[in-house]
Design brief:
about 5% helix, 5-stranded mixed beta sheet, mainly beta, 3 helices, about 50% strand, globular, 33 strands
Length: about 400
């Protein structure tokens, strides 16, 4: 089936497997298991309610400066822990959580370093933390507080809550800034090196990215329309399609990085009728937010899977997921495999490309949340049958060793 599903001889297999995550050709990055969390209603436990209804779990994890923040949406609470699993702070809705134990200790003046903050969360998801430890939380408003955009024919239902380093609620940020109109669907939020908040939203295949000053007021609004996305396959004599995989901001540059997967129609040789679509390539475009112009794209090698059949090998390709850009300008890509996870790290100048396997038993995980921090550490929250486990992979150390050689 065309060039992307094909038979190749055994000696060619050794070349192709170099860029894949096959067992023998790609090194495994050391996994560090940090701590685990029990399920329940106590301060340092997660309440995921019905674990049999996996599709409803919306718990998220981020790691910042060695501290872990978990938005347990199902319990309407956020917990902050150190790398040993010790609880440092809790933000909670008292309608779905018992009165926190650490709050009682604070009232007695015995635990001033641990904080408990009440807030009537409705439906929380993504988190971000700045260098001052201010916390930003994506919140979905109750239906009676949502607004409607008649031009786009969509509901505006999400805002970003702000809490200061002591856990005190500051305000919420909408499209225009503090107290502004709610956002459409928020894909993710980020805090840049200078403390600016970035909110990435999407409607269909179009994206809108909002940049906010540290005061919370809108600084820049970047609209990415699907009809303006570059398509290198338009000149070919066949139908082409694309999908925006993700949009991530640069940590310290006025750039957005947009991943686009391209596909073309597949014509059956015998009937000359379109019978499907073929994956063609993945490209990441840097978008200058000041000029709204696209730079030259980075071609992202796909994940290659091989199935041996006698003296030949069946090979097919699929795109990686884009999971972020670090402060030292490395792009990170990840794909789920039968053996766990495969990570591809590409320097933004295109000079280096590193591929590693990550040890992760997906069969034992009911749900998981992955986070890439600004330095390149990949953190994992894995929801398993009896507990939730936290682990990380120090890709920052790997990159430093590569740069020295």
């Amino acid at each position: 089936m065309k060039k992307y599903i094909r038979f190749i001889f055994v000696f060619i297999f050794t070349v192709i497997s170099f860029i894949s995550c096959s067992k023998n050709k790609v090194s495994e990055l050391e996994r560090v298991n940090l701590f685990s969390l029990n399920y329940g209603n106590f301060d340092d436990e997660l309440n995921l309610f019905d674990l049999s209804n996996i599709g409803e779990i919306n718990t998220k994890l981020i790691m910042s400066d060695g501290f872990f923040y978990i938005s347990n949406s199902e319990a309407k609470k956020i917990i902050k822990l150190n790398s040993y699993g010790d609880l440092l702070s809790i933000f909670y809705n008292d309608e779905t959580n018992p009165h926190p134990f650490i709050a009682d200790k604070n009232e007695n003046g015995k635990n001033a370093t641990r904080t408990a903050t009440y807030y009537p969360f409705n439906e929380i998801s993504y988190l971000a933390v700045d260098s001052l430890k201010n916390l930003f939380v994506v919140e979905k408003l109750p239906s009676e507080r949502c607004e409607f955009d008649s031009k786009l024919n969509i509901s505006l239902s999400q805002v970003v809550l702000r809490f200061d380093t002591n856990g005190n609620f500051i305000d919420y940020i909408g499209q225009e800034g503090p107290g502004g109109m709610p956002f459409p669907f928020i894909k993710n939020i980020f805090v840049m090196k200078n403390g600016e908040l970035v909110v990435v939203t999407s409607v269909g295949q179009s994206y809108t990215v909002y940049y906010y000053k540290t005061s919370g007021y809108l600084q820049k609004k970047v609209i990415i329309k699907s009809e303006n996305i570059p398509n290198p396959y338009l000149a070919e004599d066949k139908d082409s399609y694309f999908s925006i995989g993700a949009v991530y901001p640069s940590y310290d540059l006025k750039l957005l990085y947009m991943k686009v997967d391209y596909y073309t129609s597949f014509i059956d040789d015998s009937t000359h009728v379109m019978s499907g679509i073929d994956y063609e390539s993945t490209q990441v475009y840097p978008l200058d937010i000041e000029t709204s112009s696209y730079g030259e794209p980075f071609i992202i090698p796909p994940y290659t899977e091989q199935l041996s059949q006698g003296f030949s090998v069946l090979s097919y390709e699929m795109p990686y997921d884009f999971i972020g850009v670090t402060e030292n300008n490395w792009m990170f890509f990840m794909v789920s495999t039968d053996e766990g996870l495969c990570i591809q790290m590409i320097q933004c100048d295109g000079q280096r490309n590193i591929t590693r396997k990550l040890d992760f038993n997906r069969q034992e995980s009911l749900y998981y949340s992955i986070n890439l921090d600004n330095t390149g550490i990949i953190s994992l929250l894995s929801v398993e049958k009896d507990k939730a486990s936290i682990a990380w992979w120090r890709t920052d150390s790997l990159i430093m060793s590569v740069l020295k050689n």
